[in-house]
Amino acid sequence: MDTLQRKRVLVAGATGALLGLSLFGACGACGKGLGASTVPSALPSAAYLKRTEAPAEAGPVAVRDVAMWTSAREGTTEDLASLATHEGGAGLVEAASEPELRPTALRAMGFARGWAQLPFLTTAASGKSDDEARLALASVLELAARPRRSEDVEDVEELGEGCAKLLALAREASQPRERRVGAIRALRMMPCPKQDLPADLDAK
Length: 204
Description:
This protein has 204 residues and is mainly alpha-helical. It has 8 helices and 2 strands. 60% of the residues lie in helices and 3% in strands. The protein has a two-stranded antiparallel sheet.
C-alpha cells in the first residue's frame, strides 16, 4: 500500500469514528428526552389526570379519565354509576381527597359495589360541611336501598364501622335533625345489628 492509499484509509477511519460519536450523542440526547417524559405519547396528557395518592407498591402511577369525571359531575345517575363501576368504592374514597373531585366522588359512592366506602361516607355525614353531609347521606341511603350483592360480605368490617357511625349520628342530639333522620332511615334498611334507635324523631 503506497502513501496515498494509507492516507485515504486513515481519513476514512477518522470520518467513521466522528460519525459514530455524533450518532451516539444524538441517541443519548433522545434517551434523556424520553426519560424525562412521564406521559406516553399515545396518551394525550390533557385528557388524563394523575393519581397523586397511589401507594408505592401499586406500580406505575394510575390515571383518571377526566372525561368520565366531567360527565359524572355534570351528567345523570347513569354517569355516576359508570364512574362508580370504573373507580370502585376504594378508588372513589381516594379521589375524594382532591377537593375538586370530592363532591362528585361522594355522589358516585352510592353506586359503587360493596361497603368499602361506607365508613368514609358516614364520617362525612357527621362532618362540619352541611353540603358534604347532605351528599354523603344521600349516597348512604342509595346504598341502603339497593339489593344485597354477593360481594357485600367481603366488606363486613367496613359495614360494621359504618353502622356504628350511623347509630352514633342518629343518637347525637346536637346534630341537625335532617342528618339524624337520614341516619335512622339508612339504619332501618341496612343489614346492621339491631339497635334501639332514637324515638324522639319522626323518621318516616
